[in-house]
Design brief:
alpha+beta, 434 Repressor (Amino-terminal Domain), Beta-Lactamase, 2 domains, 5-stranded antiparallel sheet, 12 helices, 5 strands, globular
């Protein structure tokens, strides 16, 4: 790592924070806000870190932020890819390679997600790694951003961790396995044999006979996404429709789950919103740090 330019980093963070309006991040402006831009505590919450940690970066007297922390700051401040790369260089890191990793969320996708706080929605990259969830998505599916390593990928968890299948009715497992294998097959076709996608495929072929068998069939996704059924441990079975907004530039998808008004699933989804928190299911996820480290890194 090169030497960080702490003064320039602090000035850049302040400038971007003051330029970001509450509405840009899905926050209420409120009547008592006397200055434009966001407060430090608001940015810290958006970045999933402590106010003290973020404040010290702006002063500047904080520690040298890691790449994981910088990625969280870039998302919290809704930076463009060019701004993210500049942030990394100011902090003494090389700018991330612009390969199809899809960890940085497009600011436009973030603005849409910010306005969906009363809806289960999440941003997922081409490897099935969940990058950001709304509160209701966490209540419905659990915190999918908290995994590390290959377990960050839903595809990997589905075929290697039985606990990950509890979210789906058992009668739907075979169909969902084929869907995930086909989704990964499409990503592999786009990325080629020298990619993280190919590495994930090899990991899964070695770890899961089920996946290996499906892969050998060269599965292809169909054009229609049927309603999805979810088994919630507290409210039971829900049938939800999934609408997808694709960002081809960064290989990401914004998934939005809705229920038909007037149905039992609609009422159950409202109850999930009231209950809050995530489903109480066993898993093996691990968070990094204690309050300052961003999830899923």
């Amino acid at each position: 790592m090169d030497t960080a330019d702490r003064a320039a980093l602090a000035a850049f963070l302040r400038a971007r924070r003051e330029a970001l309006q509450p509405e840009d991040a899905g926050l209420p402006r409120g009547r008592r806000r006397r200055t434009d831009g966001l407060r430090r505590e608001e940015v810290a919450a958006l970045c999933d870190m402590s106010v003290d940690y973020y404040s010290r970066l702006e002063q500047p007297r904080g520690p040298n932020p890691s790449e994981q922390m910088l990625a969280a700051i870039a998302r919290g401040l809704r930076l463009s890819l060019e701004e993210r790369d500049h942030l990394f260089r100011l902090a003494g890191h090389a700018a991330p390679r612009r390969i199809r990793r899809g960890d940085h969320i497009n600011p436009g996708i973030m603005r849409i997600l910010d306005r969906l706080q009363d809806t289960p929605a999440q941003v997922v990259n081409h490897l099935g790694e969940t990058l950001k969830q709304t509160r209701l998505a966490v209540a419905l599916l659990g915190d999918e951003t908290a995994f590390t390593g290959w377990a960050r990928s839903l595809h990997y968890r589905w075929f290697t961790d039985p606990a990950s299948r509890l979210v789906r009715p058992e009668s739907d497992h075979a169909e969902h396995s084929r869907l995930l294998a086909a989704d990964l097959y499409g990503a592999y076709a786009r990325d080629g044999s020298d990619s993280r996608t190919a590495q994930l495929v090899e990991e899964l072929r070695a770890a899961s006979p089920e996946f290996a068998a499906l892969w050998s069939e060269h599965p292809v996704l169909g054009p229609y996404c049927a309603p999805k059924r979810f088994q919630h441990p507290r409210v039971g079975l829900l049938e939800l429709h999934c609408q997808t907004l694709v960002d081809p530039d960064q290989s990401q998808r914004l998934l939005v789950f809705t229920a038909v008004p007037g149905t039992e699933s609609y009422a159950s989804l409202q109850l999930v919103s009231v209950l809050g928190d995530g489903p109480d299911r066993p898993d093996h996820r691990r968070r990094e740090g204690s309050g300052e480290a961003p999830p899923g890194r």
